[in-house]
Amino acid sequence: MAHFDLPLDQLRAYRSSATAPADFDDFWARTLAESRAAGWEPRLERVDAGLELVDVHDVTFAGFGGDAIRAWWQAPADRAPKAVVVELVGYSGGRGFAHDTGPYPLAGYARLVVDTRGQGWSHGSAGGATADPHGTGSQAPGVMTRGIGSRETYYYRRAYTDSALAVDVARKLAPGVAVFVAGTSQGGGLAIAAAALADDVAGALPDVPFLCDFPRATTLVDTMPYGEIRMYLAAHRDEVESVYRTLSYFDGVGLAARATAPAVFSTALMDATCPPSTVFGAFNAWAGEDKSIEVYPFNGHEGGTGYQREAQLRWLRERVG
Q1: What pLDDT is recorded for position 49?
Q2: For residue 79, which of 61, 60, 106, 57 has the smallest C-alpha distance?
Q3: CB 143 within 8 A of CB 93
Q4: Are the C-beta atoms of 165 and 115 separated by less than 8 Å?
Q5: Which among 35, 248, 277, 301 is annotated as catalytic?
Q6: Using a CB cutoff of 8 Å and minimum separation of 24, what contacts does 28-33 make?
Q7: Which residue in 230, 223, 206 sits closest to 274, CA to CA?
Q8: Cα separation, 57 vs 43, whole angstroms
Q9: What is the DSSP letter of 33?
Q10: Is 92 a catalytic residue?
Q11: Which residues form the Acetyl xylan esterase domain (predicted)?
Q12: Rounded to whole angstroms, how far apart are CA atoms 86 and 77?
């Protein structure tokens, strides 16, 4: 796809029109307090993943409402980790295989890769191992409109809470060590939420993040997964106002405005899945002053791939030493 969004100079100045409701902070404070009250100690089981340089444990921890969430804990085998990276997963993906470590453990960091509840149906790996036990009314295929009739029942209330509580778990597994949050696409949106909602996150690495600037994203592109919302509203024509009211509690723009940790974003100017203006909407709203964004002018939703991994590892080294 050719460039279809705003020119780069306008993207750098772009400010989203998305606004957080007046009770946004109270809603999230209550949600997290209720889930922490329902929590329990994480359970770990060592796994033989066939690796010599990385130790792997199967982790089960308490997410939203005390629901069981699965994750892999992957840490350098011969040393204490320099930091922890909580990695959130892209849309439809799962935590994958125990031996799918990525570069972080090899660079000296522990990695907590978190299953996304109710997903894991693609990406060509082991898929997901975490159910979403909560029911819903009418929805389009996928999870974008699951429970969208109310902020209380919306799917991403649970997924964002799971992501924030994963930071708590990382601190228990590596006490006193800095915790970063990272992810690509949906994982990037979840990383923004975790950085905003969890306490004292050391940094965030949202890569071509999804779930940002819903009013613009859902009217600028009809690609999936944003297309699920369009599909739902095409059938539920009397729910437009209530749907956008629900989404306002989960917009990455509003969450970014509450995130103060250092951050490195990325965007691709031909990305028709997560349009660059929606990424810049969250980036420009980010409350922390220590922030940067990598721009890939001729890429789509794949973004920078290996180039971005290199930039992220360099960024982490600068902050961890």
Answers
A1: 97
A2: 106
A3: no
A4: no
A5: 301
A6: 28/197, 28/249, 31/64, 31/157, 31/161, 32/161, 32/164, 32/165, 32/197
A7: 223
A8: 10
A9: H
A10: no
A11: 1-317
A12: 18
Binding-site residues for substrate, in ranges, read: 91
Q: Which residues contact 93 (CB under 8 A, 6 or more apart)?
A: 116, 119, 120, 122, 123, 125, 128, 186, 187
**Given 35, 185, 266, 277, which residue is catalytic?**
185
| Positions at the binding site | 91
- Please indicate whether residue 99 is annotated as part of the active site: no
User: Residue 127: its pLDDT value, please?
Assistant: 73
DSSP-derived 3-state class of residue 299: coil
| In the chain, where the domains are located | 8-320
Q: Specify which residues 76 forms β-bridges with.
A: 54
Regions in the chain scoring below 70 on pLDDT: 123-126, 140
**8-320 CATH:** 3.40.50.1820
pLDDT at 129: 87
Cα-Cα-Cα-Cα dihedral sign, residues 94, 97, 103, 108 = positive
Active-site residue (options: 67, 168, 271, 277): 271
Q: How far apart are CA 32 and CA 148, in angstroms?
A: 19
The pLDDT of residue 73: 98
pLDDT value, residue 135: 73
**How far, in Å, CA of 85 to CA of 128, rounded?**
19
- Look up the pTM and report it: 0.97
Active site residue 3: no
Contacts of 282 (CB under 8 A, 6+ apart): 16, 192, 206, 209, 212, 213, 252, 253, 255, 256, 265
Residues in the chain: 321
